[in-house]
């Protein structure tokens, strides 16, 4: 344990989290107009209709997998008498499939972004920054999942997950992460990079998932002049 | 209550439009002025909030009326009204790729021309050309479609045969029709009473304004899910591919709020558009849109409209917060007269169950023209009434457009127009008035004359009866200035030398004064003619007179 580890696993997560929250709040305040999917379906729809759902649905499963793997402590599943082999088989099968689907979806989406001239022309600079990081995070995560196939795999529930939960108690267990295999460390670092890019790219559209639609009446009425714009000046960000 | 009608439930006001198709010459002035006002920006090159299509024809975007493909509007499912593209859960499941979204090819790929080539091409034997360039990706392209590609059947029978409305009529009729008739159909957003675009918006960004019924997109709440584009059966919501937001016809609300007509109406050379207030019972809309029989939807929608002359309605309207001048305007509304009093205006595709609020007076001219071609006197009452009845083909086609296939209301409307024509012909020829003509279509001579005044003379003040805006929450008219007056809004440019008001010319003899050019006008005193209202003579319009030195 040295200063580098303290900086990487004790300080950096909080910096990334602060940037994510403050950046999103700042953007919502000053660039609400920029909160959009910036869809390119108008330009190209065949590949999108495969790649888009594959990537997004896969990502939702991956997210659920991270919640189960990182947030649920090992003691809880043991108390519920979930056998260790079943837990890991599930993580490998479901997590691996979801991860593969996400990577495949992203590959299709990147391919169409590069090969379709109209979509390529609609690509912004923030997209160019986000896509490589996103791809790297996914590949690293998939590689980490693959390492659980080894004979004596690293138990991330004893290491990475402990560190992750300790972040929320404001008492980061730097040692737990410092001893994790390199691929896990790289995955965590890249994920932090992604979170810092998040507010400044099109990824913000994830925060505006329209769940409230399920409970809304179909027709929306509004008074003239209600909901006036909050910010006087509009700038495009991302 | 003199009319013995039930007390209206929730009275609401709507600014609605009627277009008289007999007068449309297909000049596209409305489309062009609308485009210059609203969609001359990057990302909306392909979007025409107002377009004029030739009928029969495919329309724009092509075959937009094929709801089996695009699934716009509403449908009845076990008696319940649901968006045709499915309920809420299905919509969220399709969030990542909307299967019913038209692609750019269904509209057209916008282009510009490489004009630089005209002056920069190397010297050669051939005259240089300005080849077309795509405005989407900048590459060279072959133009294969446009917003009015089948204008005047320019696309040929191949295009016309694909008209989804024609497909509903039998083959033999189709063939005859293509030889016989053609008319223009200008289209804007319908600002529906039961808007399906609003219903399918997952973000809740689209809304119907309570005060005037205008359907708008909140640009700050739109997240670009694109469901509104497919949800609108008229395909009048467009996706701005540069900003990633939906945009649509706004009924020029900043103008309407100021009591002025929309740009398309103002600039219509045929003077065929009418704007006015309609009072309706919002509580009846849902029931009217759920009428089982599609052909009953026209009558059901008429049943939602309230008679502003009824004192009970006027009282209920003012109780609902509608200002007095709006009720007065509703009484003088040309739209209410054409729709409810004379019953010559019909809704476009009521079978979509959105309760559209831009209605159309069906064209009588094709009938008159066909009659004249066969050697008859096209305007003699006996032959004209007979022709409307026997020329089943235009009737069937118009009925597919305006009444879900029920020819009776179309026939009645055409007969009233024919009665107006023949009555006024007798007046012009100095013949005895024949009250039987008016009576045969269920009108009085006075009503015929009033309708003639509205439709044929079409005075500006009678075509557009628009009260100025109010805010229902306060209940009183307020002057808040133009709704678009904000930094960065349309027409609000950054202050620079060109757009600022002419600055005072520098005092002569000061050290900073620039050397005056021969004309005596300095650049700082230039006038932007676009900001001139045409009144008076602004400073800087003419070069300053040089005083004796």
Automatic annotation (TrEMBL), chain A:
It is a multi-pass membrane protein. Pfam families: Nitrate_red_gam (PF02665). Residues 6-224 form the NarG-like domain. It is found in: Cell membrane. Keywords: Cell membrane, Electron transport, Heme, Iron, Membrane, Metal-binding, Nitrate assimilation, Oxidoreductase, Transmembrane, Transmembrane helix, Transport. The keyword tRNA-binding does not apply. The chain crosses the membrane at residues 6-26, 47-73, 85-109, 129-149, 182-200. NCBIfam families: narI. This is Respiratory nitrate reductase subunit gamma. The lineage of its organism: Bacteria, Bacillati, Actinomycetota, Actinomycetes, Kitasatosporales. The gene is narI.
UniProtKB/TrEMBL annotation, chain B:
Its main location: other. It is found in: Cell envelope. Residues 15-44, 180-212, 213-242 form the 4Fe-4S ferredoxin-type domain. PROSITE patterns: 4FE4S_FER_2 (PS51379). InterPro entries: 4Fe4S_Fe-S-bd (IPR017896), Nitr_red_bet_C (IPR029263), NO3_Rdtase_bsu (IPR006547). The keyword Ligase does not apply. Pfam families: Fer4_11, Nitr_red_bet_C. Its cofactor is [3Fe-4S] cluster; [4Fe-4S] cluster. The keyword Disulfide bond does not apply. Residues 509-522 have a biased composition (Low complexity). Keywords: 4Fe-4S, Electron transport, Iron, Iron-sulfur, Metal-binding, Repeat, Transport. Signal peptide: none annotated. Residues 475-522 are annotated as: Disordered. This is Nitrate reductase subunit beta. It comes from Streptomyces iconiensis.
């Amino acid at each position: 344990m040295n200063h580098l580890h303290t900086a990487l696993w004790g300080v950096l997560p909080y910096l990334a989290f602060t940037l994510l929250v403050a950046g999103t709040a700042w953007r919502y305040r000053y660039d609400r107009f920029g909160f959009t999917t910036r869809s390119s379906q108008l330009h190209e729809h065949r590949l999108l209709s495969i790649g888009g759902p594959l990537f997004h649905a896969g990502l939702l499963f991956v997210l659920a997998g991270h919640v189960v793997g990182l947030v649920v402590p090992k003691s809880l599943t043991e108390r519920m008498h979930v056998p260790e082999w079943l837990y890991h088989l599930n993580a490998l099968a479901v997590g691996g499939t979801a991860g593969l689907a996400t990577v495949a979806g992203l590959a299709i989406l990147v391919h169409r972004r590069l090969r379709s001239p109209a979509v390529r022309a609609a690509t912004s600079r923030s997209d160019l920054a986000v896509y490589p990081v996103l791809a790297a995070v996914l590949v690293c995560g998939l590689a980490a999942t693959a390492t659980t196939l080894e004979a004596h795999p690293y138990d991330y529930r004893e290491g990475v997950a402990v560190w992750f939960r300790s972040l929320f108690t404001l008492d980061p267990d730097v040692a737990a992460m410092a001893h994790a295999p390199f691929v896990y460390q790289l995955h965590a670092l890249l994920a932090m990079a992604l979170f810092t890019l998040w507010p400044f790219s099109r990824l913000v559209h994830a925060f505006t998932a329209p769940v409230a639609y399920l409970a809304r009446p179909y027709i929306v009425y509004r008074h003239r002049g209600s909901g006036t714009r909050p910010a006087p000046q509009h700038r495009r960000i991302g | 209550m003199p009319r013995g009608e039930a007390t209206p439930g929730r009275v609401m006001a709507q600014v609605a439009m009627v277009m008289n198709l007999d007068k449309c010459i297909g000049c596209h002035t409305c489309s062009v002025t609308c485009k210059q006002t609203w969609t001359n920006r990057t990302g909306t090159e392909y979007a025409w909030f107002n377009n004029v299509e030739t009928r029969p024809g495919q329309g724009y975007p092509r075959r937009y009326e094929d709801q089996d493909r695009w699934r716009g509007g509403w449908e009845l499912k076990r008696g319940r009204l649901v968006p045709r593209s499915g309920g809420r859960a299905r919509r969220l499941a399709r969030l990542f790729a909307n299967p019913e979204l038209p692609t750019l090819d269904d509209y057209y790929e916008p282009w510009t021309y490489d004009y630089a080539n005209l002056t920069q091409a190397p010297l050669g034997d051939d005259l240089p050309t300005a080849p077309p360039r795509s405005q989407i990706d900048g590459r060279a392209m072959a133009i294969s479609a446009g917003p009015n590609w089948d204008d005047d059947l320019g696309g040929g029978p191949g295009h016309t045969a694909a008209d989804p409305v024609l497909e509903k009529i039998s083959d033999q009729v189709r063939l005859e029709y293509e030889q016989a008739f053609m008319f223009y159909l200008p289209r804007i957003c319908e600002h529906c009473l039961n808007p399906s675009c609003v219903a399918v918006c997952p973000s809740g960004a689209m809304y119907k304004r309570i005060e005037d019924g205008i359907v708008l997109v909140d640009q700050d709440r739109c997240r670009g899910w694109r469901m509104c584009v497919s949800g609108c059966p008229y395909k009048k919501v467009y996706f701005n591919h540069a900003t990633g937001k939906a945009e649509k016809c706004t009924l020029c609300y900043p103008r309407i709020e100021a009591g002025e007509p929309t740009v398309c109406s103002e600039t219509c050379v045929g003077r065929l558009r009418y704007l006015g207030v309609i009072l309706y019972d919002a509580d009846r809309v849902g029931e009217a849109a759920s009428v089982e029989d599609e052909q009953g939807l026209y009558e059901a929608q008429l049943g939602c409209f309230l008679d502003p002359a009824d004192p009970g309605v006027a009282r209920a309207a003012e109780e609902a917060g509608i200002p007095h001048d709006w009720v007065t305007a509703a009484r003088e509304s040309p739209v209410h007269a054409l729709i409810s009093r004379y019953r010559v205006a019909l809704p476009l595709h009521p079978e979509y169950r959105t309760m559209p609020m831009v209605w159309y007076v069906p064209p009588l001219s094709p009938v008159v023209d066909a009659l004249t071609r066969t050697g008859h006197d096209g305007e003699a009452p006996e032959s004209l009434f007979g022709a409307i009845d026997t020329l089943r083909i235009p009737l069937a086609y118009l009925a597919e457009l305006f009444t879900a296939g029920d020819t009776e209301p179309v026939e009645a409307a055409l007969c009233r127009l024919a009665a107006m024509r023949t009555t006024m012909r007798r007046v012009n020829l100095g013949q005895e008035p024949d009250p039987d003509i008016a009576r045969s279509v269920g009108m009085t001579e006075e009503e015929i004359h009033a309708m003639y005044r509205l439709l044929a003379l079409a005075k500006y003040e009678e075509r557009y009866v628009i009260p100025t805006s109010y805010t229902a929450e306060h209940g009183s008219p307020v002057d808040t200035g133009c709704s678009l007056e904000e930094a960065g809004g349309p027409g609000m440019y950054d202050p620079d030398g060109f757009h600022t008001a002419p600055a005072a010319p520098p005092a002569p003899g000061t050290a900073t004064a620039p050397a005056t050019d021969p004309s005596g006008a300095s650049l700082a005193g230039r006038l932007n003619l676009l900001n001139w209202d045409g009144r008076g003579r602004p400073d800087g319009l003419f070069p300053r007179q040089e005083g004796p030195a």
